[in-house]
Amino acid sequence: MVNPRCNALMRQLPESDYQLILPHLHLVSLLAGQTIYSPGDRIEHVRLPISTQIALSRDLGDGTRIDVALVGASGMVGMRGLFGGRCEHGVHVAVSGLAYQISVPEMLAALHRSISLHQMCLRAYDRVIQTVSDEMACSHFHCIKQRLARWLLSRQDQLGSDLIEVTHQGIADALGVRREAISNTFTRLQGIRLGRGYIELLDRGMLEAHACRCYFEQQKKQPQQLLLPLHD
Fold this sequence. Notes:
The protein folds into 2 domains: 4-140, Jelly Rolls; 142-220, Winged helix-like DNA-binding domain superfamily/Winged helix DNA-binding domain (Arc Repressor Mutant, subunit A), CATH 1.10.10.10. It has helices at residues 8-11, 15-21, 104-111, 115-141, 144-159, 168-175, 179-186, 204-210, 213-221, and strands at residues 26-30, 35-37, 45-49, 53-59, 65-71, 90-95, 97-103, 163-165, 192-195, 198-201. By secondary structure, it is of the alpha+beta class. It is built from 9 helices and 10 strands. The longest helix is centred in the middle third of the chain and has 27 residues, at 115-141. The radius of gyration is 18 Å and the shape is globular. Helices cover 41% and strands 22% of the residues.
């Protein structure tokens, strides 16, 4: 089976606390574009990504949206459900893959028995807040070209592949801009090759030269590389 400790938060749990929630974890497959929650929905599960990427987004009210946080194998989504809160953001799958999920009641029962699980949830919440803060600053101070280069580099890091399956509209939604702005910016971006429904990264150095400093700051905050096999 897929190792739950491939999620960085799970990997940091002491063995006794890990065993508290292990029987209640269920492996699920998530597809890119799938809506998990809409704003106002009741949160029923906490999800711990393994190979998927889950985005938190805001509708800007003019037909566009922006992804304010992207949660992967270093984080967790659904923490507000543990406090009885409803979802504030749109939550959708940015990259297809696997995640473990646990129901809110089962997670609450485990939390009553473990300080380490409380600390895990606080780390996950802090990471999301930090990501939202970083994205807000980047969108305000950096141009679309810089943000697009950063997005491509980050996605390459997350997928471990030079080939990124995405449309111009998908990137526009993630960055909170019009599709035309993305298409125009691609004409001024070097080190890539555009295809129908995909982008191939040819020269990482060129993209890094275009990217804003947020990308390099983000790299410093990444957790250590996984030391565990994906499957037990």
